[in-house]
Fold this protein.
Amino acid sequence: MTTPRGPLLVAVSGPDGAGKSSLVGRLAAMLAERGLTVVTLHCYGCFLCRRFPVPPRVKDAAEPGGDGWARRATDPQRGGSRLRRAHAFLDAGELAARIAVAGLRARAGARARGGEAVILTDRGPLDGLAKFDPPAGSGAAAVFRRIAGRYALTLLVETCSDTLRRRGWEEVAGPPAGWWARYRNWSRRLPRIVRLDGERSPSLVAGEALDRMLDAARERDRAHAVREDAPVPDRRLRHVVISVYDDAENPAYRGGGALVVGKVARRLAEDFRVTVVTAGRSGGTEERDGIRYVRLPVCRAGPRAGQLLFLTLLPFVARRVRHDLWLESFTPPFSTSFLPLATRAPVVGVDQGRSAEALWRRYHIPFFLVERLGLRCYRHIVVMNAADGSVVRRLSPRADVQVIANGVEQRTLDESGLGTGQFILFLGRIDTWVKGLDLLLDAYDRAAPPLDLLLAGSGTPAEERRLAALVAARGHGPRPRIHWVGYAEEERKHQLLRDSAFLVMPSRHETFGLVALEGMSYGKPVLHFDLPALRWMRDGGDVAVPPFDVAAFGRRMTELATDAALRRRLGRRAGLAAQRYTWDEMTGRYLALAHRLVDAPAAVRRPGRRGTPWLTTH
């Protein structure tokens, strides 16, 4: 017989202005929408602190903060040290009483709704110790430490002093640096303290906080199972499905999307059972590297019709494949397939190919209307860059939008190769309009830089014919200077990157630009139009020109081709910048996201044919 567990008690701590209350609200919504009973306590000190105003310029002797350190009416400068100790005991007693009452409410709610309960407070024992700063061996400190032992986790939201001032910190309360000294001092003396970087966006802070809470809940479940001699659930039984139209076997695409999905799938397979649903010329399944691949027979319809068929079939596949989590890589032209309407399991939209706006500019067909409607169905979306993150948050205000960039294989930067190179390189899928190949050829023809231009990549037969015609039309002179070498296999691709002087990316539309990151890892500058989606490269050895300014693109191409010292300087910066984008870190973020969505603190759920409900907030 197992003994019932009490609610999970979590405190969010930090000075006023650190964003404690807003973080508690976000966490409460995220937990409540996944079926947990959540009780929140907004503790602004004891009733004396709430009742009496703060007199200015009152402090204890030898207390940090100088004359600006503020005390309340019951503090020792006004009432003596005994009253201050009494105040600390009163504060701790009221906090303990409120936790006890919240525990009764949480247990009652958990019994009524089923599952487990969580108590969230925006003030914990750490805040009380920082406020009163009692001697470490005093009775007041012992009381606060005893209460801290009841907490499963204390999240300390760390921000700099300037941030607190920008958020309305009143200097009458004392300098922020003095408060932070107290928090850091006491955080080393209490158990289960987790520090959060409060300088990041609220959604990232909330995501990390939820991950830490789930880790604490899993640890408690594990310890409870050991005490009760019960089996610990096996997480490998959970099933994650990833859908992506792009595939390494598809000659019309073979882009970065397939590479990213392959990396993510292998990382998720460490903790989950993983299936990849992709497109193919014939249907079937295969097992590779411990991952099951399911191919839908849609490619025979052609690249455009195949995409539409793939989007159409996905909801039916989702209803037939048992899963606990689905990651959907968006597919043109509509990007979304309204997949969340076909399953009760959590669905994460991965924005690697949201191009409806670009297709509207190209074909004047309003695909974006369907895309915008579909985006509102998703509660979890991953984007590759901050600019797309802002757009998606505006189009889908209820979604939890996370920015997870792509990664690159890390390699030692070869200083001897910086600034060298034999040609200008374009590497990527052959799509003349989207990739801006017509603009590139116009710029190269006008500027006539001293290095040859090499084009490497493949695409649909129609796009390859279009490019061949453009190259032939510019083949003037006794020796051609523009060379299209077709698709480059992995080894050939790396050789081209090593031997190039710099890369050009004249795209009209991009979601990240994985090829640019690969070139940067070899210490190669990247010349591109200044698109918002490519601004992650800023100050990373890139050269940006105004969007679609062909003359400016040609001038900078010539400048880079003739100035080896400039290429060397930019290449060193590019190589160092690429070292921040490791596959281990980026795929680790997908793994953490999957655990956050699948591993609930409640008992293990049996995956149904359509999964189980899961929602989240901003």
